[in-house]
Amino acid sequence: MILVFTLLLLGVFLSTALSFSYFVIGDINKARAIDDSVIAYYSADAGMEESLYLLKNQSATDKLAAIMLSRPGDNSLDQSKGKWNIGESTNYEQAVLRQRLYNGQSVKFFILNRPSNKTESITLEWQKGLDNAGEKTPANLQVNMTQLIPQVQSSTLVYYQDTSQLEVADSETGIKCYDLKDLDFNKQPITTPPDYLLEFKVFGGSDTDYVERLSVKAYNGVCTMAEPQRDFNPQGITNLTLKSKGTYGRATQNIIAQILPRDPVSGILSFVLFSESDVIKE
What we know:
alpha+beta, Jelly Rolls, 2 domains
C-alpha cells in the first residue's frame, strides 16, 4: 500500500512539475521573443537611420539604387548582432497603383529632374468602389498638379497650381490625360520646365465612399499626340519608399519611410525615429 501510494504521489508531483515547467518554458519563450523583437526593431531602426543619412549626404532622393548597391544583403550590427536589410526598398514604379482610398484620403506623387525627365503628361485611370448593395459609391476624385518652382505674384513667392479639377468619371468611361502645362501666372510658357507635385484626393458623400483603384502613368509627349508618339516613361513618377527590415533570432521588424523629394533629416529623440517625411512602422 505504501509503495502504491508513493507511486501515485510521485505521479501527481511529476504531472504538476511538468505542467508548471510547460508554462514556465512558454513564458521564457515569449520573453525571449519580445527581447528578440526589440533588438530586431532597433536593427531596422539602425538601417533606416544610416540610409536616411546617406540620402541626406547625397542631397537627392533618386540615389536609392546606389545606396542599395552599397549595402547589399544583410548588414550586421557589432554589439547586438542584429541584422538589417533595405533590399525591399523601391525607387520608381512603372505604373503607380493605389487601392482603397476612402473619402478625405489623398495620395501624392512627384515628377522630378525635368527637363532630363521628359515627362509632359500623365494618364489617370480609376474606378469607384461599391457599397453594400453593389452600387457604385458617389466618390469623386480631385486632381491637383502643382509646380515645385515658386513664382512671384504680388511680391509674394507662391507655388502655382496649373491644374485643379474634380474628376467625376471613372475607368469605365476611358482613361483621362492631363498635360503638365509649364505656364506661369500670366499663362506664359516657363523657360525651364518645373518639377511637379501630383495630388489625388477622394471626395464622397460619406466616410465609406472610396476609390477602388487608382493608376497613374507618366508619358513623354502631350495628350494631343497619338499613343505611339506619346511614349510611356517608366521613371517619370517618383515614389521613393525606403523599407528597412530588422532581424534577430526568429523575430522580424519592419520600418517604412515614404521619402519626399527633399533632403531628409533624421535622428533619435527619446527612442523615436523621426524625419521630415512620414515614417510608418508596419
